[in-house]
Amino acid sequence: MTDEAGGRTGAVVTAIRRKLAGGALMPGERLPSIRGFAATMGVSPSTVVEAYDRLAAEGLIRARPGSGFYVAGAVSPLALTEAEPRRERAIDPLWVSRQSLDAGPDMLKPGCGWLPVEWMPNGAIRRAVRGLARTGDALLTEYGAARGALSLRRHLVRRFAGEGIDASADQVLLAASGTQAIDLIGRFLLRPGDTVLVDDPCYFNFQALLRVHAVRIVGVPYTPAGPDLTAFAAALAEHRPRLYVTNSALHNPTGATLAPGTAHRLLTLAAAHDLTIVEDDIFADLEPEPSPRLAALDGLNRVIRIGSFSKTLSASIRCGFIVARPDWIEALVDLQVATSFGGPSPIAAELIAGTLADGSYRKHLDALRRRLSRARREAGGRLKALGIAPWIEPRGGFTLWCRLPEGCDAAALARAGLREGLVLAPGNVFSVSQTAAGFMRFNVAQMTDPRVYEALARAMAGSETPPASSP
Amino acid sequence: MTDEAGGRTGAVVTAIRRKLAGGALMPGERLPSIRGFAATMGVSPSTVVEAYDRLAAEGLIRARPGSGFYVAGAVSPLALTEAEPRRERAIDPLWVSRQSLDAGPDMLKPGCGWLPVEWMPNGAIRRAVRGLARTGDALLTEYGAARGALSLRRHLVRRFAGEGIDASADQVLLAASGTQAIDLIGRFLLRPGDTVLVDDPCYFNFQALLRVHAVRIVGVPYTPAGPDLTAFAAALAEHRPRLYVTNSALHNPTGATLAPGTAHRLLTLAAAHDLTIVEDDIFADLEPEPSPRLAALDGLNRVIRIGSFSKTLSASIRCGFIVARPDWIEALVDLQVATSFGGPSPIAAELIAGTLADGSYRKHLDALRRRLSRARREAGGRLKALGIAPWIEPRGGFTLWCRLPEGCDAAALARAGLREGLVLAPGNVFSVSQTAAGFMRFNVAQMTDPRVYEALARAMAGSETPPASSP
Predict the structure, then answer these.
(1) SS3 (DSSP) at A16
(2) Residues in Cβ contact with B467 at an 8 Å cutoff, skipping those fewer than 6 apart
(3) Do residues A172 and A311 both lie within one domain?
(4) Which residues of B touch A162 (CB under 8 A)?
(5) Mean pLDDT over all residues of chain B?
(6) Which of A257, A366, A404, B208 could pair with A408 as two cysteines, CB 3.0-4.6 Å apart?
(7) Chain A residues near residue B158 by CB distance under 8 angstroms
(8) Helices (DSSP H) in B102-177: which residue ranges?
(9) pLDDT tens readout for residues A184-216
(10) What residues are paired with B71 via a beta bridge?
(11) Is the pLDDT of residue A326 over 80?
């Protein structure tokens, strides 16, 4: 389309818009005929067709084959507006997700679980998108292979080899996200009424997800070296759980890392009780150096490793993965076809593979680790000034699990935070035993704006329980 | 990076590759230091860093922060190859999907459920991809809104208004695919042991999906005007089903369309038995003119409408949708966050919205309908010459549900077809009652290559049961 034609087409579009706005054309009415309106406007019929097509693509008019164009049914402007997140909803494991995902642009989100846009490898992703525009048609329109794009699975196989995990491309299944990877595994291994162990505290969405599976969730207290092994052994004996879901490296929310000795004893206990483990190492790329991997120690016998690229590459390009025993993967492929007709978009896999293969990606990770290290130090100091104390100093990552000042309730503070424009992540959304009311998870990457601390201080003042009596 | 630097970098990359291939550098060994190798190669240290980064992005070497680059663990070439689809697997409702998705490039796929690449709106999609490359960083890296991109939901609201379905953007939830839309609804409404009605025959994946939900599946015979209402009423009385899953327009596999009177009586029966209906109108855009919609008649009271863009726009850009009562959508959003941490990629929604808004999209649909009409006529004629007779002449779409010649078993023919390079869709994968052994679903858009009919004739000859005695 030339600019001139665009100008003429634009004039026809504007003329019809005026008729619609002014009521000269009402819903259901037929638009002027193409030849007639072309004569009226002094343009060619093809210009009118072009204009009508644009208006049809916007949904304002509709074509009826063989009969011309008609004004579409009226849609109230209210029907087209976005819903506000519901502030009054219960503070449950879905609370942080829903408040974070639907937060308006003015909200500050120290409670959310991802990095700010400007911390992501935007240049490399944009190069991958430009590469996509030059790729073959099949990638843009066809379903992909049932296990997902081979190029990305090959990349993962090489990466796993570097971590000491020996797997073939056959043993890797791409999924639409890390969460969906765990969901598929749950559908494969769990039946309603089964028991699943999680860390206490653990990533809140493990609980939300496991509730959908109608299983009993048992929490094992988490220590700075991993799960409390005495409690873990007791839980195995008492509850005979089918599955344990955990993060080994940079545990969410605590930022702790599984110690080698704990990892070994955990696997010995798991073998003795025929326990399967899902190791969600979604934060692995943020570690300064690799820590022990259950999947590597175990050789993918009873450990299933999952992950995604949401934390270091892009959360918008939805793509996760599962690596597991070949027979389990075969069953998971069937499950994924039945429930999603395949895995992530082949386009998503291509964008991820393209970004990972960009020479800049390693530098991005290096820079990210350094930036996070500074941000942890800075946020830790500012939080201490407010009387908020980190539980440990994590080796990497962006979460700080913090104890609030005596008498400060995290849920009350989170509610007060919303009123001050803050999305916070109160402790008990992470805690199966609901024993973390005095804790809060902070995302240091979302706390470089000083307004976070001002709003937090106001929220703390606003959420204080008034003293029982004031003489 | 300038071309010259690329050439120098390339030389360093090649030199290291040779060392790796020749065994001069073994897995775990440290690579030459950057300064040292720069001197050896007569290039700058930054050129060596660039080369090492490229090799690291390929997974051949790994950086250890502060300690240099090391050769990555060896990965056997066999570990990087793709699995062949398993030919010997049982012909069940997953058979066609798995064979179609993983078919090699030389296979012909008259049994698959999608259009060939060259029938899709490739130009418009490519324009949308180029638009994506110019968009803001947030779209490329951040999670999207919990219900999915508002722009696409607004488009859908206008389209629904045109179909007589009155819904607001709040009532629309984007999902990763049409299949996943039904899966979410199943998780919301169904409990193990519930009964679900489907058409007999019905889209095979409805069965595969419902089996995952551990529900009892009851089939109701499908007539050229919709479900057999006497059998439907009897099934309601006998089984008290919770849900009915169907396609109203261009039913899969038969290509039939629900008649207005059948639609009305169906809804009356549903109301009397408190039945919820999922209306999967995934083929709606292929209709020559719109047929009755249960969702429009019912006003989204007990009907949930789902769909996707896989059949007319792209199957690679994974995106489906649900439109339903506001309270149900709110629950489905929670379920989708818990099980996938959100819906389709915001990038997918942007590509879909961009393509739909392209003025060429309506013309694409018009051309597609004309092309399909010709292809149905042509394939119908050629199939008849082989003794294969369409059950009805569909008004639109790409499926022909055909009766095979007397004594020809569809499953045996499908197995013989694989040996001849054909993926076929044998009748019983669509039939809950397993009464369609004499039927086959053909996709006319995948049958323009005359080799399809040659291979089909050979497969028919090869799958014939030998006569009991030959004098």
Answers:
(1) helix
(2) none
(3) yes
(4) 59, 62, 72-73
(5) 91
(6) A404
(7) 58-60, 72, 75
(8) 122-133, 137-141, 150-162
(9) 999 999 999 999 999 999 999 999 999 999 999
(10) B61
(11) yes
